[in-house]
Amino acid sequence: MNTGTARAQKKAHQIMEGAAEIFDQHGFEGASVDMIAEAADVSKATLYKYFANKQELFKAVIQRQCKFYSGRIAELSEVDGTLEDNLRAIARTIGQTFTSPVLANLYRLAIAEATRFPEAGRTFYESGPQTGEVLTAKILQKHIDSGELDIDDVPLAARQFQELIKADFFHVAIFGIRTDFTQADIEKSAEAAVQTFLKAYRAR
Which class is 61-201 in CATH? Predict the structure, then answer.
Protein backbone atom coordinates (compact mmCIF):
# COMPACT_ATOMS: atom_id res chain seq x y z
CA MET A 1 0.00 0.00 0.00
CA ASN A 2 1.41 3.35 -1.05
CA THR A 3 0.52 5.95 1.62
CA GLY A 4 3.73 7.92 2.02
CA THR A 5 2.36 11.48 2.01
CA ALA A 6 -0.60 13.16 3.69
CA ARG A 7 -2.33 13.41 0.31
CA ALA A 8 -1.68 9.74 -0.38
CA GLN A 9 -2.99 8.78 3.06
CA LYS A 10 -6.17 10.77 2.43
CA LYS A 11 -6.70 9.02 -0.90
CA ALA A 12 -6.01 5.61 0.63
CA HIS A 13 -8.55 6.30 3.36
CA GLN A 14 -11.07 7.36 0.72
CA ILE A 15 -10.58 4.04 -1.04
CA MET A 16 -10.87 2.11 2.22
CA GLU A 17 -14.11 3.92 3.08
CA GLY A 18 -15.60 2.86 -0.24
CA ALA A 19 -14.26 -0.67 0.17
CA ALA A 20 -15.69 -0.98 3.68
CA GLU A 21 -19.12 -0.02 2.36
CA ILE A 22 -18.98 -2.57 -0.47
CA PHE A 23 -17.55 -5.38 1.67
CA ASP A 24 -20.27 -4.69 4.23
CA GLN A 25 -23.00 -4.94 1.59
CA HIS A 26 -21.67 -7.76 -0.59
CA GLY A 27 -19.04 -9.65 1.40
CA PHE A 28 -15.52 -10.29 0.17
CA GLU A 29 -16.40 -12.65 -2.68
CA GLY A 30 -19.35 -10.58 -3.87
CA ALA A 31 -17.39 -7.33 -3.93
CA SER A 32 -15.63 -6.44 -7.19
CA VAL A 33 -12.87 -3.93 -7.74
CA ASP A 34 -15.19 -2.05 -10.10
CA MET A 35 -17.80 -1.73 -7.37
CA ILE A 36 -15.22 -0.56 -4.83
CA ALA A 37 -13.73 2.01 -7.23
CA GLU A 38 -17.19 3.41 -7.94
CA ALA A 39 -18.07 3.62 -4.25
CA ALA A 40 -14.74 5.33 -3.49
CA ASP A 41 -15.15 7.70 -6.47
CA VAL A 42 -11.76 6.75 -7.94
CA SER A 43 -10.62 4.98 -11.07
CA LYS A 44 -9.45 1.37 -11.01
CA ALA A 45 -6.00 2.61 -11.97
CA THR A 46 -5.94 4.85 -8.90
CA LEU A 47 -7.14 2.03 -6.68
CA TYR A 48 -4.39 -0.27 -7.92
CA LYS A 49 -1.85 2.49 -7.35
CA TYR A 50 -2.55 2.21 -3.62
CA PHE A 51 -3.56 -1.44 -3.23
CA ALA A 52 -2.11 -4.31 -5.25
CA ASN A 53 -5.29 -6.38 -5.17
CA LYS A 54 -8.64 -6.89 -3.44
CA GLN A 55 -7.06 -9.12 -0.79
CA GLU A 56 -4.61 -6.41 0.27
CA LEU A 57 -7.43 -3.87 0.37
CA PHE A 58 -9.58 -6.15 2.53
CA LYS A 59 -6.71 -6.59 4.98
CA ALA A 60 -6.20 -2.82 5.10
CA VAL A 61 -9.89 -2.28 5.86
CA ILE A 62 -9.70 -4.79 8.71
CA GLN A 63 -6.58 -3.16 10.16
CA ARG A 64 -8.10 0.30 9.93
CA GLN A 65 -11.31 -0.71 11.70
CA CYS A 66 -9.43 -2.58 14.44
CA LYS A 67 -6.97 0.28 15.00
CA PHE A 68 -9.55 2.43 16.80
CA TYR A 69 -10.17 -0.33 19.33
CA SER A 70 -6.52 -1.17 19.95
CA GLY A 71 -5.54 2.51 19.91
CA ARG A 72 -7.84 3.30 22.83
CA ILE A 73 -6.38 0.47 24.92
CA ALA A 74 -2.88 1.62 23.94
CA GLU A 75 -3.69 5.04 25.37
CA LEU A 76 -4.85 3.43 28.61
CA SER A 77 -1.61 1.47 28.90
CA GLU A 78 0.31 4.76 29.11
CA VAL A 79 -1.90 6.35 31.79
CA ASP A 80 -1.41 5.90 35.52
CA GLY A 81 -4.74 5.08 37.12
CA THR A 82 -6.19 2.95 39.84
CA LEU A 83 -6.56 -0.77 39.26
CA GLU A 84 -10.35 -0.59 39.18
CA ASP A 85 -10.42 2.46 36.91
CA ASN A 86 -8.02 0.88 34.42
CA LEU A 87 -9.95 -2.39 34.29
CA ARG A 88 -13.26 -0.57 33.86
CA ALA A 89 -11.82 1.53 31.03
CA ILE A 90 -10.55 -1.58 29.21
CA ALA A 91 -13.91 -3.29 29.73
CA ARG A 92 -15.85 -0.33 28.34
CA THR A 93 -13.60 -0.13 25.29
CA ILE A 94 -13.97 -3.83 24.50
CA GLY A 95 -17.70 -3.67 25.15
CA GLN A 96 -18.17 -0.70 22.83
CA THR A 97 -16.09 -2.43 20.19
CA PHE A 98 -17.93 -5.73 20.05
CA THR A 99 -21.37 -4.12 20.24
CA SER A 100 -20.51 -1.95 17.24
CA PRO A 101 -22.47 -3.17 14.17
CA VAL A 102 -19.50 -2.25 11.96
CA LEU A 103 -17.03 -4.36 13.93
CA ALA A 104 -19.51 -7.20 14.35
CA ASN A 105 -20.04 -7.39 10.60
CA LEU A 106 -16.30 -7.19 9.93
CA TYR A 107 -15.77 -10.03 12.38
CA ARG A 108 -18.35 -12.13 10.54
CA LEU A 109 -16.69 -11.35 7.20
CA ALA A 110 -13.24 -12.32 8.50
CA ILE A 111 -14.62 -15.61 9.85
CA ALA A 112 -16.48 -16.33 6.60
CA GLU A 113 -13.34 -15.81 4.52
CA ALA A 114 -10.85 -17.42 6.90
CA THR A 115 -10.87 -20.78 5.09
CA ARG A 116 -10.49 -19.43 1.54
CA PHE A 117 -8.42 -16.40 2.57
CA PRO A 118 -6.57 -17.30 5.79
CA GLU A 119 -4.77 -13.96 5.86
CA ALA A 120 -8.10 -12.23 6.49
CA GLY A 121 -8.65 -14.16 9.72
CA ARG A 122 -5.04 -13.74 10.76
CA THR A 123 -5.15 -10.00 10.09
CA PHE A 124 -8.30 -9.55 12.16
CA TYR A 125 -6.88 -11.62 15.02
CA GLU A 126 -3.52 -9.86 15.07
CA SER A 127 -4.97 -6.36 14.64
CA GLY A 128 -7.81 -6.83 17.12
CA PRO A 129 -7.91 -9.55 19.81
CA GLN A 130 -4.17 -10.25 19.92
CA THR A 131 -3.22 -6.58 20.07
CA GLY A 132 -5.85 -6.01 22.75
CA GLU A 133 -4.47 -8.96 24.72
CA VAL A 134 -0.90 -7.64 24.60
CA LEU A 135 -1.94 -4.14 25.66
CA THR A 136 -4.21 -5.47 28.42
CA ALA A 137 -1.36 -7.65 29.68
CA LYS A 138 0.85 -4.56 29.82
CA ILE A 139 -1.68 -2.81 32.06
CA LEU A 140 -2.09 -5.90 34.25
CA GLN A 141 1.67 -6.17 34.64
CA LYS A 142 1.83 -2.64 36.09
CA HIS A 143 -0.61 -3.65 38.81
CA ILE A 144 1.20 -6.93 39.41
CA ASP A 145 4.41 -4.98 39.93
CA SER A 146 2.62 -2.68 42.38
CA GLY A 147 1.44 -5.70 44.38
CA GLU A 148 -2.27 -5.23 43.64
CA LEU A 149 -2.69 -8.31 41.43
CA ASP A 150 -1.38 -11.84 41.88
CA ILE A 151 -1.15 -13.44 38.43
CA ASP A 152 1.18 -16.20 37.25
CA ASP A 153 0.18 -16.35 33.58
CA VAL A 154 -0.43 -12.76 32.47
CA PRO A 155 -1.35 -13.43 28.80
CA LEU A 156 -3.91 -16.02 29.92
CA ALA A 157 -5.39 -13.60 32.47
CA ALA A 158 -5.63 -10.91 29.78
CA ARG A 159 -7.56 -13.30 27.51
CA GLN A 160 -9.80 -14.33 30.39
CA PHE A 161 -10.62 -10.69 31.13
CA GLN A 162 -11.54 -10.10 27.49
CA GLU A 163 -13.87 -13.11 27.55
CA LEU A 164 -15.52 -11.98 30.78
CA ILE A 165 -16.35 -8.66 29.14
CA LYS A 166 -17.79 -10.33 26.03
CA ALA A 167 -19.82 -12.91 27.95
CA ASP A 168 -23.01 -10.86 28.17
CA PHE A 169 -23.30 -9.66 24.57
CA PHE A 170 -20.78 -11.16 22.14
CA HIS A 171 -22.83 -13.97 20.63
CA VAL A 172 -26.10 -12.07 20.43
CA ALA A 173 -24.23 -9.23 18.70
CA ILE A 174 -22.27 -11.42 16.28
CA PHE A 175 -25.36 -13.41 15.27
CA GLY A 176 -27.36 -10.22 14.83
CA ILE A 177 -29.88 -11.20 17.48
CA ARG A 178 -29.51 -7.84 19.17
CA THR A 179 -28.05 -4.52 17.99
CA ASP A 180 -29.62 -2.03 20.41
CA PHE A 181 -27.01 -2.08 23.18
CA THR A 182 -26.97 1.01 25.39
CA GLN A 183 -24.11 2.54 27.34
CA ALA A 184 -25.86 1.32 30.49
CA ASP A 185 -25.72 -2.25 29.13
CA ILE A 186 -22.00 -1.90 28.49
CA GLU A 187 -21.37 -0.38 31.93
CA LYS A 188 -23.24 -3.23 33.63
CA SER A 189 -21.26 -5.90 31.76
CA ALA A 190 -18.00 -4.06 32.35
CA GLU A 191 -18.56 -3.81 36.08
CA ALA A 192 -19.50 -7.49 36.35
CA ALA A 193 -16.35 -8.47 34.44
CA VAL A 194 -14.13 -6.28 36.62
CA GLN A 195 -15.54 -7.62 39.89
CA THR A 196 -15.30 -11.26 38.74
CA PHE A 197 -11.72 -10.73 37.57
CA LEU A 198 -10.71 -9.07 40.86
CA LYS A 199 -12.17 -11.94 42.89
CA ALA A 200 -9.84 -14.27 41.02
CA TYR A 201 -6.68 -12.18 40.81
CA ARG A 202 -6.62 -9.41 43.42
CA ALA A 203 -3.63 -9.91 45.70
CA ARG A 204 -4.65 -11.19 49.11
Answer: mainly alpha
Distance, CA of 157 to CA of 177 (rounded, Å): 29
The Cα 37–Cα 49 span in angstroms is 12
Query: Which run of H or of E encompasses 148?
Result: none
What tens digit of pLDDT does each residue of 99-124 get?
888 888 888 888 888 888 888 889 98
The domains spanning 1-52 and 61-201 adopt the same CATH topology: no
Strand partners, 202: 149
Most confidently modeled range among 34-43, 57-66, 177-186? 34-43
- Distance, CA of 184 to CA of 173 (rounded, Å): 16
| 3-state class (DSSP) for residue 202 | strand
pLDDT of 83 over the 90 cut:
yes
Class at the top of the CATH hierarchy for domain 1-52:
mainly alpha
DSSP H helices, the chain, are 6-30, 33-40, 44-50, 54-77, 83-98, 101-113, 118-125, 131-145, 154-166, 170-174, 183-201
Burial 123-147 (b: 16+ CB within 10 A, else e): bbbebbbbbbbbbbbbbbbebbeee
Domain boundaries, the chain: 1-52, 61-201
